[in-house]
Amino acid sequence: MNQLNNQQMSSAQQASTLPQVKTPEINDRDRLNEILSTEKYLASGYNTACNEASSEDLYRVQLQLLTEIHDAQRNLFNLMHQKGWYKIEAEDVNKISQKAQQFANYRTQFPYS
Fold it and tell me: Region (Disordered): which ranges (predicted)?
């Protein structure tokens, strides 16, 4: 009997270490991902709308909305990052410096200063 309990406990311990299978239900991470995607889509649309605004008043209203959308995106990103749902890999400082220098070299090729 004791051996059976040990086997059941061992099976339960193994099950808890296995990767969790994604269920069809939408969880908080899925919801936030969807909201963040929507905010990115809205930002793209409002960016175009600002560029093509027919009057200064319309431009200002759309620009304010675009700013609010960017703020919402940033808040969502921070929340997801805090929860470990949006991971960013740190890049090597030397690699960043190399790319910055590469861009600086490209700037000398531009026809304007």
Answer: 1-29
Q: Containing domain of residue 58, as a range?
A: 28-88
Q: Please name the residues in contact with 86: beta carbons below 8 A apart, sequence gap of 6 or more.
A: 77, 80
Number of domains in the chain: 1
pLDDT tens-digit readout, 16-33? 455 566 778 889 999 999
Q: State residue 87's pLDDT score.
A: 83
**Is residue 73 in some structural domain?**
yes
CA distance 86 to 73: 13
